[in-house]
Every structure is written in C-alpha cells, then in structure tokens.
Amino acid sequence: MMQRVLQSLICLTLLVALRTAFGGDIVLRSSIRIAEDATVSLGDVAALFGEDAQKYAELPLDVGIAKQGSRVREVSLDDVRIALREAGASFGRLTLSGSTCRILAGGTEPAPESEEPIRTDNVAEIVSLEGPPTVRRTIAAHLAGLYEVDPEDLRLRFQRDDHAFVDASQWGRQVVLQPTTTASSKRMLIEVRTYADRTLLEARTVAVEAEVMRDIFVVRHDVQRGDSLTETAVMATRLWLSPAGSPPLTDIEEINGATARSRLLAGTVLRASSVKAPILVRRNELVDVYCVVGGVEIVTRARAMDQGRRDDVIELRLERGSRSFTARVVGRGVVAMDMAGVETRAEGDGQ
After folding, report:
1. Where do the structural domains in the chain lie, given as residue ranges?
2. Measured between alpha carbons, how far is 306 from 266 in angstroms, rounded to an integer?
3. 94: which DSSP letter?
4. Domain 279-342 indexed as CATH 3.40.640.10
5. Could you report the per-residue pLDDT of 190-237, keeping only the tens digit for each?
6. Burial bucket for residue 235 (CB in 10 Å: 0-12, 13-18, 19+)
7. b/e for 162-172, b at 16 or more Cβ within 10 A?
8. Cβ atoms within 10 Å, residue 66
9. Which H helix or E strand runs over 327?
10. How does pLDDT run across 320-334, given as a tens digit for each residue?
C-alpha cells in the first residue's frame, strides 16, 4: 500500500516541478487602445511573463462587438482561457490573473495631458495598476505575482534616469520583461523590450528596488545569545521589508523553542538566520504523516527514527511495517511526504 502511495506521489511532485521549471504568467491589462479593424491578440491585452506564456503572444482573440452606443469592447479572463484551451495550451504551466480588459477604439495614443506625470523624486511607492499601460505598471504586476502579494503590499523604487521611460504610455504596444537577477536581490535588474506591430521599439535595462509588506515578529526586549524564545518574548507586527537577505519568520511555531544565534536587541526583526530552529519532531515520537494523492489527502501515523527541525528530512517507520521511508518535517509532530520520501528501505536491506 505504501509503495502505491509513494508512486502516486512521485507523479504529483513531478507535475509541480514541471510547472515551477517551465511556468508562465498571463496578467490581463485593465485597458488597451487599438484600431477598430485590427486583430486583437493575447499579447495586446495581457502582460506575458515566461516563455510558456510569451509563445501565445500572437494568439488571436474573439472580442465580439461593443455595446450599443459605445465603442468599447471587452475581453474577460474566461475569453482568454477559452482561446488558450482551443490553442491546446497546458494550464498546468500557466497562471492567469486579472479580470477584464477594456478595448478602446483608435490606434493613436491619448493626448499628452492624459499621460502619466513624469516623476522627479526617487522614493519607494505603491504602484496602482489602474490607468494607461506603462512599464512601471507592468513591472509592478509582475513583481506582485512573483512575491505573492497584493499590489498595495508592494512598494517600488526606480532610478531617476528611468522615470521617463517607465512612465511613458505604452498604448498599443507589447511590453516584455526578462529579469536578469534573482527575486531575492536588493536591486533587481530587468531587461525591458517594447514592441509595436511586433517590431522592436526599445530595449533597456531597468533597476528597481522592492519593498514588501510582511506580517512578521520582532523581539520585545534584548535577547542574549543562546537564550530560548517563547511567544511572550516576541510581538507580531507588519513592516515594509526588502526581499533581500534571510527571510523573516512568519510562523510562531518557527519561534517557540528556538534559540538565538547572537544577541538580539529589542525591536529586531526575527529572521531565519537570527535563530537556531526548534526541534519539532523527536526520536521515537509518533507523528502524523500527510501526503496528497489524486487530490485526496491521506493521513497516517508513523514513528520517527530521527529528530528533526522544520524542513529536515527524517526517517520514519510505520508501527506495524518493516519498511522505513523519509518525509519532511513541516510542524510539531507533523511530516509531509515529498520526493525525498519515494525511496523505501526494508529492514536488513543494508542500503
């Protein structure tokens, strides 16, 4: 039985890995302006991130006709899904977001007075995704998805020399982003290319610093190196943090029983590097084992052969079984099956 469960889990994990390795994001724009007789493609109405999304840039969309008395047509996220399905797209590799894109008649850009004002300051700010399409808004939508936060929980700081470029209207143009640094960099470098009628207009590398609003914990008072932490020693709060550096601790279970690696002053943000994680599973302890097979969650009990901290992979054995297996520690007395657990070993195998 355990062998069948493990084999099913391999398939599930591989599907997740494929989506992570080859995935793409499609973010529907709020509005575009295009000539009434022009063919509307996916690249016109959405920002496309990743090769799996960008290969559908020229996919034509059926936008129907405008309502009586209006020249505005609309494309919904459902319309995009239908077109992608008919094109044979793999939704396991694509993430779709947005609601409806309004298609305004006319191929010319709005008058200069309707464009975004060019900023001259250099402060981090929340970027509204509403309004005419700009490079600033396209980058903001991409990073909000990358950091898995709402747009209002993301602040961006661009270089002064880039303000005119990132705030220029991109009506009728396609904006393609290609990050050249990791998401955990303090300053991200993003290669931006803009196209009109599939002709490259401009290519430029833009530097941007991000700040994300996070629910985190800070210490209430000074903590000495080696001291154990408890709930009473910390305080939950929300702060703007750079995604760079060691990730902040967001789960009280990661703090209870942890020990300080160095002296922590009152008000210090607790990060993974600040503490030595607590032992969540002890040797010979009976623990809950979770795995998901075909959308069904399976829970069983097993005995831990090792102790472990969060994310440690430890060996376990079913109470009435002769084979051991491995799983990842995810909480106090709780482990989850993953790729590390697909190898089982019978007692006496010697491997």
Report:
1. 25-108, 214-276, 279-342
2. 35
3. E
4. no
5. 999 999 888 999 999 999 999 999 999 998 888 999 999 988 889 899
6. middle
7. bbebbbbbbbb
8. 15
9. strand 323-331
10. 777 888 999 988 889
